[in-house]
Amino acid sequence: MLKEKKIFITAAATALFLAPALAPVGHVFADSSSLQARNSVLASEQQTAHINGVYHVDQLVQFNGKWYVVDNGIAIPPIDYNNYIPVGPLTVTDNSGNALSDQTLHKGSYFTFGQGQFSVINLTNNTVALNIGGEAVSFNRNAFGNRLVLSDKIPAAKFKVGDKVEISNIATSETNGYNLIPHRNWKGTIKSVSQLKYSSSNWEYCVEYPNGQQNVHVAEQDIIIDSQSPSIDLAQIKQAGINGFNSGGWSYPSGQCTSFVAGILASQGVNTSQFTFLGNGADWAGNARARGIRVDMTPSVGAVVSFNGVPPYYSAPYGHAAYITQVNSNGTFHVYEGNWLGTSFHERDVPLDNAVAGIIHF
């Protein structure tokens, strides 16, 4: 007798599924890549649902060593693995919804979804996809009627992977109880985001510090934006760069990387005396340094990178200039740039290598 959590599968049902050829008509046995795609959407959960009512086992399926049921009445035709309901969270009942002492599951059984709350993965007027037993399951939303009870939508996470953050000075513990007090005011980078209801938080984060240490279960309430990490409006930065590229100005002709960056600097309120007449992209680092502007090899958000004229990417002697929008934990940094292969806008991660003439902190 096979067992999946508290649900048992009868020997008769087992005999039906010794080979895929004997599976119920209409079923598609998904390959592992399809199941991986099915489960890859789980990260977007932000709302929960409770399912009332009694349901019927019309089909019983075994796949990859696990058992699933299908109720044709709430499935989306044509029925395939997207409609498979893992048996683990289910309760075997009579047709009135009374739990049976014998939790043996077979074709023709009745079941309920219990008292659980299932995370909503996707919701349309006609369909709903829920995380049931750790897997994404799609249903005909209209078939539930008022038996599907949706919770209020959980607010979106305040932070995203790559954000520079600081542990609050009143933080006490992680969501798993680990002591967080020694790491108060520590600054690090968000490495992952997970939905979790804890105290006043709906999200938890993995925060990695410059020394390589991590706190893996930090509640949202215990995180603040790093006060020394500037906040920039990326949409505005992008548009300012494109405008500068198209119009030219500040001593730079249109269609150049330098006019792209100059457009951004002007939009950010940088004094024009600091960035006009700096020459080609390769010349910016040296000329800015000569004006007393800090130039080093330390990337930071809002700084400008000057590239030497090193083929094949940066034509000699002109070089290139770009605006830094993010510093990555692996040592690379993200830039916005113009005139990359002639385009008005381009973005990419770049390494801090010998092509970099200097980082200019206007």
Automatic annotation (TrEMBL):
Pfam families: CHAP (PF05257), ZoocinA_TRD (PF16775). Gene3D superfamilies: 2.40.50.670, endopeptidase domain like (from Nostoc punctiforme) (3.90.1720.10). Keywords: Signal. The keyword Signal applies. Residues 1-30 form the signal peptide. Residues 232-362 form the Peptidase C51 domain. The keyword Signal applies. This is Peptidase C51 domain-containing protein.
